[in-house]
Amino acid sequence: MGLKYEFTDEIMFIAGRTLHRIRRISNGELGGFIEKENNLSQEGDCWVNDYAKVWGDAQVSDNAQISGTACVHGNTKVYGNAEVYNNAEIYGDGGSAQVFDNAKIYGNARVCGDAQVYGHAKVFDRALVADSAQVRGNAKVYGCAIIYNDARIYDSDVYDNARVYGSAFISGNVNICDNAQVYGNACVYNNAQVYGNAVICDNAEVSDDAKVYDSAQVSGNAMVYDRAQIYEHAIISGSVHIHGDDEFFGDSVIQ
């Protein structure tokens, strides 16, 4: 099989590296900038376009598309039918970040460390997915949301749509799944579980093995922690603290 692209004489310098603009051999179409051939596979329909840049040990393969002014670098992989565009950045930062399947990373979003984004997931705006976090399925992470440590944002069913947005902060061994939403300045951390159609919003905190599920809602300045469970249609709001072995369910309203 012949080569798909070649280097042109146009270069740019970034992070102490020399990047070369590429050109598609079949039709002369100019692409973006890569440091070396290992950055972009000569097989498949993968491409680096516009002023996008790929360098270091990063690998773009299969049908993945990098465009706009996006940057992919470090020990990272973008493959499958994944798309990275606008000003998005994928970087290793001591790890091996991966974006694959039909995932899309765009806006000013960043994926770094050992994070993985895959399935039909979308990460955009100024969202950050870092460390060993995973965003998968139809999940969406956007706004200024931060997902890191071992947090997992995902869907249990093809029709689900987990969302984390606003300035939400998710960390630790956390699961946000199904149709759950976490937004505003809400924080979910330390082994907490949020699933079903649950909503965590405003300045609420859910942590330390607590569970919020079904169609429950935690809002305001409420704190749910230490194994507490909120489920069915219960609403927890205001500045209340729910903890220990507390359980609220049904149509309970605590505020």
Q: How does this model look, in words?
A:
The protein is built from no helices and 37 strands. The chain has 2 domains: 119 residues; 125 residues, Hexapeptide repeat proteins (UDP N-Acetylglucosamine Acyltransferase, domain 1, 3 Solenoid), CATH 2.160.10. Strand 1 and strand 2 form a beta hairpin. With 255 residues, it is mostly beta strands. The mean pLDDT is 96. The chain starts with a strand and ends with a strand.
Termini separation comes to 67 Å
Q: Structural class of the secondary elements?
A: mainly beta
Q: Radius of gyration over alpha carbons? A: 21 Å
Helix content: under 10%
Quick one: how many beta strands? 37
Ranges where pLDDT stays below 50 over 5 or more residues in a row are: none
CATH architecture of the largest domain: 3 Solenoid
Q: So how many helices?
A: 0
- Can you identify the CATH class of the largest domain? Mainly Beta
Strand order of the largest sheet: 1-2-3-5-8-11-14-17-20-23-26-29-32-35
Domain module tally? 2
How would you state the average pLDDT, rounded? 96
CATH topology of the largest domain: UDP N-Acetylglucosamine Acyltransferase, domain 1
Q: How much strand content do the residues show?
A: 35-45%
Name the CATH superfamily classification of the largest domain: Hexapeptide repeat proteins
Instruction: Report the principal-axis shape.
Output: elongated
Q: Describe the sheet with the most strands.
A: 14 strands, mixed
